[in-house]
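User: Predict the full complex structure for these chains.
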Amino acid sequence: AQKITQTQPGMFVQEKEAVTLDCTYDTSDPSYGLFWYKQPSSGEMIFLIYQGSYDQQNATEGRYSLNFQKARKSANLVISASQLGDSAMYFCAMREGAFTGNQFYFGTGTSLTVIP
Amino acid sequence: DSGVTQTPKHLITATGQRVTLRCSPRSGDLSVYWYQQSLDQGLQFLIQYYNGEERAKGNILERFSAQQFPDLHSELNLSSLELGDSALYFCASSSRDRGRSYEQYFGPGTRLTVT
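Assistant: Here is the predicted structure of the two-chain assembly.
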C-alpha cells in the first residue's frame, strides 16, 4: 500500500479563492509527522507546514493550514486567498517513528495552477 | 534560501562513470538526507545520516553510497552510472530535536544527466 496518497494530479483555483489539496497516509506507527512542501517550477523544495500525530490542534502557518483528521488518516493542505505565486507542485510527506532516523515518504504531488 | 548548499548544480556524465555530489547542511543541523527525484519514480528517500552515522536507508541502490564527515557535510557517491540514474538529487537537513525539528530544509539540488 502507498504510504502517502495524493489523488489530485492537477488543480486549478481562482486567484484570492481558497483551495484544498488532499493527502491521505497509511501507517500503524502511533508517532509520526506530516509535512507539506511546495516545489515551484524553479525546482527547489520549500517547507510549508508540519503536523505531529499527537498535536491536538491543526497546524497553521500564515495562509497555509493543515486539516488533520487522524481517524480518517488525512492531512489536507488548505491554502487561503490564493496568489499567482502559489502555482507550483505540492507534496505531502510523512515521517514515521518516534526517533531520528526513520524514513520519509512523499506523495506523487499535486500541481496547482492559480488563475488570474 | 534554505541555508543548505549543494554542489555542483548541474552534472553531465557518461554511463559507467562515477560522480560525487556534495551537500553542506544548515548551520547547526546534524541530520542530512538524500533524495532522488525523477519523472517516473517521483521523490524517493535514499539515505539519512545523523552526526556522522547512518540512521536510515531507503531506496538506495548498491551502486550508490554516502557518508557524512566530521564537519557535517555529506557526499553522495554514484558509481557505474546508468541512463536511469538521470535525476535531480536533493540534499536536506534538519535539526536534532523532535517534532517540528523534523522539518527538512532542502538544498537547490544537483541535476545529474547521464548520457
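The first strand of chain B starts at residue 5 and ends at 7.
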